[in-house]
Amino acid sequence: MSKLNAEERKARDNERFSQRVDERRVKGEDVVAYALANKKAFKFLTKSEKHSLKERQAALLEEANLKAKEQLKLKDEQELEKVQAEFTEQ
């Protein structure tokens, strides 16, 4: 088998991702979830699917931010409790 140059590899990979997205779409699977998991699939989504992807990404980012804030708040509370416990012991 001959080696492919960069353009040929890119074309082959694009064709594969296009087929995978189409297969999932035909099966009724969630192609937006597939694109979230695999960034290369993004360019093979329809306009409405891309919009849905952007909304989901924003929701996931917001969820991650809230989780990070909660963890930070919990850490701060634990540190405050620790300092208060040390202060009351003295």
From TrEMBL:
Domain of life: Bacteria
Keywords: Coiled coil
Region (Disordered): 1-22
Coiled coil region boundaries: 58-86
Record keyword Coiled coil present: yes
Protein name: DNA polymerase III subunit epsilon
Lineage, opening ranks: Bacteria, Pseudomonadati, Pseudomonadota, Gammaproteobacteria, Alteromonadales
